Amino acid sequence: MTLMRLTLNTVHLFEDEEAGSTRMGLYVRVLDNAGGQVAEFRWNRRNGEVEDNFQYPLDGDQEFPSVLVFDIGGEPGGTGRINVKAYTDNDERWPDEGHHENFLGEAQIVFDTREPSQLGQLLLGPTTTDNGHTGYAVTGVLEPVPPRGFRHVRLVFRDVVVFDDENSDFPHMGLYVRAFAPAQGDAAEINQELLRWNNGGDRVFKEALFPLASGTPSPVTTLAVGGPTRIWVEAYTHDDESWPSHLAYENYLGRAMITIDPGEPDTLGRHVLGPTQTDQTHNGFLVTMSSELLPPDATPNLEITGVEVTQATQHFTPPTGGTPHALAAAKATLVRVYLDSGIDPREGGGTVAGVTGTLTLTLNGGSFTVRSLNPITARPIAQVDRAQIQHTLNFLVPANQVTPGTAKILVQAEVAGTTSNPMEVTADFRATRPVTIWMVRVSTPTVPAISAARYRAVADALPLRYPVADTGGIVYYTVPGLTEIHTTRDLTSEDGQEDFIDDLEDIQEDHGNDDQLLYAMVDPAVPMGVRGMARYDDHVAFGYDFETTFAHEVGHLLGLRHAPCGGPENVDEDFTPPDGRTGEVGVEPLTRTIHPADSGDLMSYCGLNTRWMSGYHWLRLLNTLSVRGEQADAVPPERPVHGTVPAVLTTTSRPFPGEYVRVRGRLTRSGTVRWQPCLRTHRKPSPARTFPGPAYTLSVEDAGGRVLAGTPIAVAFDRQEQQAALFGARLPYAPRAHRVVLRRDGTELGAMVVPSAPPQFVLNAPLSTPEIDTDGVLHLRWQRLDIGEPGPRPAFTYYVRFTNADGTFAPRPGVNLTGTSFDLDLRTMPGHERCVAQVIATNGYHTSYVQTPPFALPPRPPLLLPGATEGPLLHAQGSSPQHGPLTAAAVEWLVDGRAAATGGSFDVRSTGSGTFAIAVRATDPDGLTTTTPLGTYDGTSGRRLPVPSEQ
């Protein structure tokens, strides 16, 4: 057997026998001594036209490559023939012997593989056309191929030089590199794309050099090669397509091909593919690359092929270049380094154990260096599984090293005295505001509320999935007297669920703002028809104590819609990937727990307890929660002012002074509107939110139909079985209101007629301060008045509001009441020198109130809200009934009774070896304190020790 390679380079066309341009078919056949065909090449300039006196590269295509490898037969060699023919035709794409207008002639050479003088550079032609003119000439190289042998070859694609993009502006460019080889030399067939590049989505310009570092999947590739292997590149441009290709392009920039062969050192090393010839016969582009044989033994030749910087889920960016990773500051960060061992897999599997490395992070003028977490076994890059944490060299950057700014991260690996190439990536760490949560626990007649510790254990897991700080990323608010609420609503029915979320909104009405979210957590023993529910525009939600449910509903309150997995409605049509899964491997930096790429996205209905944060929603939330650098250290927002309260007894109702009115209701799928009572409020409107689809609006009109106030609103059906969707908005209060109207695409769906006057009622008790037991329960009694009210009497809905003369807090312990009495436990209310209780009534739109005489309550000490207490990292926050959240220096950690640290977290391992009693203390601005012992801990492991059993 004699293996030969024929490389066809160019065709020079002297005469095509046509007055203008035409189409040409060129055919090269290699025949053995018996006349049998052993190889064939065809060319028609990629279906393009040709002209006289032009030279064209024979760049071939995937089906007919211009490099032919063939066995000529014979021992120790043999003879063969190379024959070339060409035809032209104005209409035929492939003119040939049976379909042509002109025959451009034929040329042939005979060669003997045993005669070196007959090998090397070849010239077939010039030929003579059927009209007696000089036709064309083909150039090429004929050479023997050394015996095949298996080796690994590393290819590194470096730069592309664009000479002409055939565009007057700055187009997008798509460049594609593929490799082809038959099964040979113990290596499998190769037919794969090695690299695709579009300049990171940016446009290109002519006469410029661009690095290929941002190409995907990686500019570094290792191929198992058993003989001659073709490396083929082509490129396209387009003004509008971000990835121009053979399927969609405006200009074709040409293609080029080289052959590498592990048996021929001359075919390895540095390479230039091109310059290519564009479809306008200009120089298109060239690509620079290198190829090298990897050692055929078990000596490692480490190569870092990519670096992933992640805090939950991060789109993988191979080597340097491209957009920096977008991450959150003050958050533990895992850096995963992808290594190629550089060893033939057949040499002990290609693995090398004991690989370690270093990472240096440079940020804001400072530098931090850390060693890899554990030694790993490096392997050939083709065997690296991203879903296996032990397949990557891992580095942990602690949260206290991650400050806002753009960081440079330099990594390098080493083993057995050898080091890898260094690689540097950048990461953009952004300051984020905390997620603020009103902490409410729910009991029912049959199921008690979960504990505060359980609530925090669930909610404290949110930073695992969200781009917020590990410590302080959640700030907890508590509603005085309503940290635990009791509901008798039927949570198995849609009506009961909607009524319950109405109750929650009423509780939050005088408290939160757009950055403060209320989540009422329910024990899973409570039967419900849903795992959770959120009212998007009012920042309230309820659900079970599942980490994924909590994160899902809070995501809705922060503006996220559903991912299209599991059949939800109200889907974000822009979500990627389109199947609604994460599409990327997720990882928890502190535990290194892996979440597969086929996990359902957090906002989907897939894998309800295993859902994870996708890169798409991570970036959405990061943009929502990001703050400017000067705001990064801002304290949590103060409680809102709810309007000053006159320090007088108000026994006869008067209009409630809120300048806005809260409107809400429900819309069925059939278009029926059910209105809920409107209520005047001090709380400003939230920014309007709408969803794709029909345009819904709420408006208040006078008797003449003139719109007094209006706003677009969101109406969303989240589940296929859901029959009614909640809607609501806050509008400026209009005393002359006659109707409240809901419209869809301008068509009225339903209207609520507004009563002519505010509700009238009187306070019966208490009527004097001595009637109020400030150490016990306040018994409120009132009576409705219907003086001179024409027509049917509208229903009144009552609310009980506790506040103070300064209007700095306003719990609503009583909501959606229909009776005329309420017992208020003052022992759970905030302290102040002038407190009052108000009864508020609405008749559907207008709102009135009565008020008790003022009374004094002593300031209440703060609550302590500790997180998980197992250790080694402890978390805690305080909450003052008078002042709200207590964080930072207001939280103090005590070790054996002595102050050791302040802040929201404490690492027990900082105490050193020994056994220690740990407690946490919260101090409010008035100097009131509460101390909670957490247990006894081992200072080395940081773990809490079990309580000794009594003998």
Quick description:
The protein has 951 residues and is mainly beta. The protein has 6 domains: 3-144, Immunoglobulin-like (Sandwich); 151-293, Sandwich (Immunoglobulin-like); 303-430, Immunoglobulins (Immunoglobulin-like, Sandwich); 435-631, Collagenase (Catalytic Domain), CATH 3.40.390; 641-858, Immunoglobulins (Immunoglobulin-like, Sandwich), CATH 2.60.40.10; 863-938.
Please give a structural write-up.
Strands 22, 24, 25, 26, 28, 29 and 30 form a 7-stranded mixed β-sheet that branches. Strands 31, 32, 33, 34, 35 and 36 form a 6-stranded mixed β-sheet that branches. 46% of the residues are buried. By secondary structure, the chain is mainly beta. It is 5% helix and 43% strand. The longest helix has 15 residues, at 494-508. It contains 5 helices and 63 strands. It has 6 domains: 3-144, Immunoglobulin-like (Sandwich); 151-293, Sandwich (Immunoglobulin-like); 303-430, Immunoglobulins (Immunoglobulin-like), CATH 2.60.40; 435-631, Collagenase (Catalytic Domain) (3-Layer(aba) Sandwich), CATH 3.40.390.10; 641-858, Immunoglobulin-like; 863-938. Strand 12 (172-181) and strand 13 (190-197) form a beta hairpin. Residues 925-940 have a biased composition (Low complexity). This is Fibronectin type-III domain-containing protein. Residues 860-882, 925-951 are annotated as: Disordered.
CATH first level of the largest domain: which class?
Mainly Beta
Oligomer: single chain
Number of domains: 6
CATH superfamily of the largest domain: Immunoglobulins
Mean pLDDT over all positions: 90
Helix proportion range: under 10%
Region (Disordered): 860-882, 925-951
Protein name: Fibronectin type-III domain-containing protein
Biased composition (Low complexity): 925-940
Organism: Streptomyces lasiicapitis
